């Protein structure tokens, strides 16, 4: 028992080192800097039955192609994980006629990319069959693969080593198992070390624009009428992450509001909103500010249930402007709340009662509240 457990831990430590390196095989777009060599040395402490905790050294070497922009890929090459197993475990395994050792592992790594939630990975690994010498050291190797991940966000990006577990089987020269059977071993990184295997700032965007599309629903409060109208529609933008600016299109579905003129005369109006010019804005942290101009039309206005204007050209004389601002917690990849305040100018083309319609529709301090959902 004393002799099997050191080998178990040594191979487990080697496995975790390799798994973290494998965790860096992230796939994305293009735009790579020159390869960055990594030579990392860490110690792990592993629990051993009977003899307690033991400290092991692990060396990891690799070349990393680091992306220079969002959408790029992070790749590894020339990967080498070296775990030197000392003489004592080798001699101990020979006492139970072990000639080789092999197995599997489950290892963890955490990828952090900008403001997004860190991605925790559990990666299956294979510990290759390794010959055990009669005396002296030996170096087992573990390999594995990870799911593809894309670096979608600008900002600080890193990969750190996580937990791991191994299931190992020593075998005799004829391939039969030894009296040790198969066993599981867990190891942890010693405190006081930097568990980061690689870290860098991912800034800007690859050539071209990044597209975002949202659906939205909400309401607008029309101050002079004392009423509200439901709002639904879609918002699409092309974002230049390098300059943190965007242009976009706002499409608002036709809507309707019921109101009380002078507080007691029942009225209603159909409302059409049309974007005027190009919508533009800036990214702010994880959200944005959108500068939007639009025209408002009232194709049907009724009082006491009777139409008093039915000209589709009945609309604002001057386009309205609003700065739509995302609320705290907004996520470009998911959506969130958007608010703004706007005015309505005088109206024209509203028929014989145009002046009256214009007088009660013209207003300032109208509010807009939307919930955007990423599509």
Structure description:
With 375 residues, the protein is mainly beta. The chain has 3 helices and 22 strands. The strands form 3 sheets. Strands 1, 2, 3, 4, 5, 6, 7, 8 and 9 form a 9-stranded antiparallel β-sheet that branches. An 8-stranded antiparallel beta barrel has the order 10-11-12-15-16-19-20-22. A hairpin with a 3-residue loop joins strand 13 and strand 14 (265-275). The longest helix is centred in the N-terminal third of the chain and has 19 residues, at 4-22. The radius of gyration is 33 Å and the shape is rod-shaped. The two termini are 58 Å apart.
Give the topology, please:
Blueprint: H1 4-22, E1 36-48, E2 52-65, E3 75-82, H2 87-95, E4 100-113, E5 119-131, E6 142-144, E7 155-171, E8 183-189, E9 196-202, E10 210-222, E11 227-240, E12 245-252, E13 255-261, E14 265-275, E15 279-284, E16 287-303, E17 306-309, E18 315-316, E19 320-326, E20 335-344, E21 347-348, H3 354-361, E22 363-374
Helix pairs in contact: 1-2
